[in-house]
Design brief:
The structure holds 2 protein chains of 2 kinds. By secondary structure, chain A is an all-beta fold. In chain A, a hairpin with an 8-residue loop joins strand 9 and strand 10. The radius of gyration of chain A is 13 Å and the shape is globular. Chain B is mainly beta. In chain B, strand 9 and strand 10 form a beta hairpin. The chains are: A mainly beta, B mainly beta. At the A-B interface, strand 10 of A face strand 4, strand 5, strand 9 and strand 10 of B.
Chain lengths: ~110, ~110
């Protein structure tokens, strides 16, 4: 099994550009998450989803949007890229919300110049 | 305020030696505590999960302990190997009636020297 797959692995954007970070999982998990990891900081939750068609804001949602049309896919959209969004973005999935581990992708490294 | 603090920030030890990483938390109401290993350039990988009633959980050479009274956890690595070089992240979850909150520590960066 591939687990959680994120694309692209690296991307450089200009200020004001938009892009979509892709995330797909093949474990039939209902729960999916988007995090950002800044240097020396813990992961911060951007958005999460408890199932297809259901999404909710996390700790740092401003400047991002998500959709969940299928169980497998959970794309993250940046509409107007800003330098503050330079970070490493991780997608994760889990079977349940509480006592099950989250499975992470290998991240997308995004630079906004 | 829900917080997870890890110490030390970084640690260097010789191959074959043991080490212990610390995690203190103020997350409430407590649901579970997880330790993840994050290799450079990779996503975190789960090592252990402990609920309120568990005070020890092992995964090979990794042993996690939890003291829910003092809100402290530790991760002990035995007979370290070069492949143990990574960041170790403590994650605490709080579960409310209709939501869940997951707080990540900033991690301890461990380097194993030959």
């Amino acid at each position: 099994n591939a687990g959680v797959t994120q694309t692209p692995k690296f991307r450089i954007l200009k200020i004001g550009q938009s892009m979509t970070l892709q995330c797909a999982q093949d474990m039939n998990h209902n729960y999916m998450y988007w995090y950002r990891q800044d240097p020396g900081m813990g992961l911060k939750l951007i958005y999460y989803s408890v199932g297809a068609g259901i999404t909710d804001k996390g700790e740092v949602p401003n400047g991002y949007n998500v959709s969940r049309s299928t169980t497998e896919d959970f794309p993250l959209r940046l509409e107007l890229a800003a330098p503050s969004q330079t970070s490493v973005y991780f997608c994760a999935s889990s079977y349940s919300l509480s006592n099950q581990p989250q499975h992470f992708g290998d991240g997308t490294r995004l630079s906004i110049l | 305020k829900n917080q997870v603090e890890q110490s030390p920030q970084s640690l260097i030890i010789l191959e074959g030696k043991n080490c212990t990483l610390q995690c203190n938390y103020t997350v409430s109401p407590f649901s579970n505590l997880r330790w993840y290993k994050q290799d450079t350039g990779r996503g975190p990988v789960s090592l252990t999960i402990m609920t309120f009633s568990e005070n020890t959980k092992s995964n090979g050479r990794y042993t996690a302990t939890l003291d829910a009274d003092t809100k402290q956890s530790s991760l002990h690595i035995t007979a370290s190997q070069l492949s143990d070089s990574a960041s170790y992240i403590c994650v605490v979850s709080a579960v409310y009636s209709s939501a869940s909150k997951i707080i990540f520590g900033s991690g301890t960066r461990l380097s194993i020297r030959p």
